[in-house]
Amino acid sequence: MTGTAHEAVVVIHGLWMHGMQLGLLRNRLAQRCGCNAETFSYPTINPPLTENAHRLRRRIDDIPADVVHLVGHSLGGVLALQMLSLFPTDKVGRIVCLGSPLVDSSAARNLAKWRVGRKIIGRTLSDGVFHQPLISADGSRDVGVIAGSVALGIGAVVGKLESPHDGVVTVRETQLSGVTEHIVLPVNHVGLVFSSKVADQTAHFLRFGRFRT
User: Fold this and answer.
1) DSSP string, 12-44
2) 5-208 architecture in CATH?
3) Which of 16, 29, 107, 173 is the 20 to 30 A CA-CA neighbour of 116?
4) 48: left (phi over 0), alpha (psi -120 to 50) or beta
5) What is the pLDDT of residue 115?
């Protein structure tokens, strides 16, 4: 791509994932939004939150677009909002968080009861959700949240989750104060990145600052 595009989208994966797994969502958003979309991959276990947030900020700075929208699945949504708190930039436009544990993660807390669980949760999640959690969206940009309500996932295996939940994250854990809009769709946690309906709603929010009614 040459020159500077007006808008672009960056899709951010969650814990234990890689950007390649978000290819379908990235392509759908590119088609529906009519702009360049790319994925951001980062190591989810060892680096602290600040390191991954700085990686994301550098990636955003390098994109030849006037406005960069962010779409984060699970931990990716936490990282997106935490990045803006740690390294503010006016280049970021709208943000959509998909099944992100923005206020807590009971599944991760259950895992953290064991030493091996604490290791596999990693530092970025621990920092961004437990040690320096988000308090509210700052209101400077549109933030949309899509939660899932199909209770199928590994989070329910390690301990009881409050209903409704998507198998990993409860709906309550996605309800950060100050977000622009919050909706719940009948998908599970992994299904959030493969659902055509989720992609449609995400693209609509990125274009108009609201979900489709």
Assistant:
1) E--TT--GGGGHHHHHHHHHHHTSEEEEE---S
2) 3-Layer(aba) Sandwich (3.40)
3) 173
4) beta
5) 86
User: Nearest to residue 202, comparing CAs of 27, 18, 4, 79?
Assistant: 27
Q: Helices 23-33 and 196-208 sit at what angle, rounded to 10 degrees? A: 40
Q: Where are the domains of the chain?
A: 5-208
The whole-model pTM stands at: 0.95
Supply the pLDDT for residue 17: 87
d(CA 9, CA 104): 26
Rg over alpha carbons for the chain, rounded to the nearest Å, is: 16
Residues 45, 105: contact at Cβ < 8 Å? Answer: no
What is the per-residue pLDDT for 1? 35
Secondary structure class of 110 (helix, strand, coil): helix
Along the chain (213 residues), what's the average pLDDT of each consecutive run of 10 residues?
A: 73 90 96 96 96 98 97 98 97 98 96 89 96 94 98 79 96 98 97 98 98 93
Question: Which is it for strands 65-73 and 36-40: parallel, antiparallel or unpaired?
Answer: unpaired
Q: Which two tokens stand for residue 43?
A: 């190591």
For residue 101, is the peptide bond before it cis, meaning its omega torsion is within 30 degrees of 0? no
Between the CA of residue 29 and those of 37, 75, 106, 177, 197, what are the distances in Å? 7, 19, 30, 26, 12
Helix (H), strand (E), coil (C) string for 138-162: CCCCCEEEEEECCCCCCHHHHCCCC
Cβ pair 25, 39 in contact under 8 A: no
